[in-house]
Amino acid sequence: MDIILLGAPGAGKGTQAKYLEEHTGMIHVASGDLFRAALRQGTELGMLAKSYMDRGELVPDEVVIRMIIERISQPDCRQGVIFDGFPRTREQARALEVELSAHARRIDHVLYLRVPEDMLLRRIAGRQTCKTCGSTYNMFYFPSKRPDICDECGGRLYQRSDDTMETARHRLEVYFAQTMPLIEYYREQGSLIEIDGRREISQVTRSMIDALNIA
Ligand code: AMP
After folding, report:
1. Does domain 3-116+177-211 have CATH number 3.40.50.300?
2. Handedness of CA 205, 30, 81, 156 (dihedral sign)
3. Residue boundaries of the structural domains of the chain
């Protein structure tokens, strides 16, 4: 099974993908995480992506598409992928369809995590990410047990440079203009499942598992 988690920045895609990955054995592929990993490794791709990420803009389609195709061509992804943060444009959605169908696969479900805008901003502003393992927390809603220290691996927590209020607002604008249209696109295809993303993490996970019929 291949699924897409669709939703605005701060909707909880990364958090939920982690639980789904544990529950299903599918592989979580997050385009933003791949860019941040490339940046930590100091690669050309990482440097290029940073110039867009810092401004809250989308990295050009051809760059993202190439990176994702490379990732999902790896053997671990054969058992099914949870796409997080990709696709974000119609062009990316089409490229993904072409790539999957070349391997007799298709997107089975698109889970849309719906969260109101004011809540998104608060979630983004409180978000902390582990430098070592990438786990995410939220200072207001889901804090780590010890301040600024990751519960999972003891790594240091930091605020992503694109999680400041100003950049977050712009990321939301970009989302509404470029990614929101995908909701209609997938609804018309009959693959969209809407999930109320305002609730507690475990309740959202439960709804997703029920919706996918994989309990
Ligand atoms: P995320 O971690 O998903 O919030 O992504 C962080 C940043 O990475 C975004 O603001 C974009 O600059 C870039 N990015 C991640 N995924 C994509 C994508 N599918 N298309 C274009 N840019 C992306």
Report:
1. yes
2. negative
3. 3-116+177-211
